[in-house]
Design goal:
198 residues
C-alpha cells in the first residue's frame, strides 16, 4: 500500500477553505506534532456542523487526515470518491477485528493520521467508545487531541498522549484537556469515561 501524507499540497482547496473560515469568523490554531503516525481524536461531537467546520478548518491549513467508514460506503459508484476524500473501508463485525484492521493499516504506512470521533454520535452518551485507544496501543502510536470550540469559534490541535496502558488514567488526562472545550450543544457532550460494564 502506498504511503499517505496528511499534508499533501492542495492549494486550490486550501485557499477556498481559508476563505470559508474567514467569512464564517472561525480561527484555526496550528500546533502539529512532528510525529509520522498518530490517532487524531476530535471532540466534542454534538452537531452535524462539526463535520463541515472540521473539514474546512483542516483544509485551510493544508491538513487532510484520513477517516474510517463501513466497507459498504466504498462500493460503486462512489467508492473512488470516498477514498479520494481520505476514507478507509473496514468491516465492523467486532470491536477487536475493527481494531486489528485499523492497526494493520497503520503498520502498512510510514506516515498516517486517522481522525476519529470517540463519542460516536451527536447525542449525549454516558461513555466514550474506546476503539481509538485500543488502536493506538495495538499499533504502538500516540493519540493527538483535536477540538472544535464553538464558544471561541476556534478549531485546532491539542496535546499528544502516549498511551500508558492504564485506560482510566489516560482518559482522565484527556478529560482534563477537553474540560475547556465547548461543543455547539454543550448539553449533548458525552462523558469522557469507559462504559460501566467494561
Amino acid at each position: 500500500m502506498s504511503d499517505y501524507n496528511a499534508f499533501t499540497k492542495r492549494p486550490l482547496l486550501q485557499a477556498f477553505a481559508q476563505g470559508v473560515m474567514k467569512l464564517a469568523g472561525w480561527k484555526v490554531e496550528e500546533n502539529f506534532p512532528d510525529i509520522p503516525k498518530y490517532v487524531l481524536i476530535v471532540a466534542h461531537h454534538t452537531s452535524n456542523w462539526d463535520f463541515p467546520i472540521g473539514l474546512f478548518a483542516a483544509l485551510s491549513i493544508n491538513f487532510w487526515p484520513q477517516w474510517i467508514g463501513k466497507d459498504a460506503l466504498f462500493k460503486a459508484p462512489f467508492g473512488g470518491f470516498m477514498k479520494w476524500l481520505g476514507g478507509i473501508p473496514v468491516v465492523r463485525s467486532s470491536r477487536n477485528n475493527f481494531v486489528d484492521q485499523v492497526a494493520e493499516v497503520y503498520q502498512q504506512h510510514e506516515r498516517m493520521v486517522i481522525a476519529i470521533t470517540p463519542e460516536g454520535t451527536r447525542k449525549k452518551t454516558d461513555h466514550w467508545k474506546t476503539g481509538f485507544y485500543h488502536i493506538a496501543t495495538t499499533a504502538n502510536i500516540p493519540i493527538v487531541m483535536a477540538y472544535i470550540d464553538y464558544k471561541r469559534k476556534t478549531a485546532g490541535i491539542g496535546p499528544v498522549l502516549q498511551p500508558s496502558g492504564d485506560l482510566n488514567a489516560d482518559l482522565a488526562k484527556i478529560r482534563h484537556f477537553y474540560d475547556g472545550i465547548t461543543g455547539k450543544y454543550p448539553q449533548e457532550q458525552g462523558d469522557i469515561r469507559v462504559r460501566q460494564n467494561d
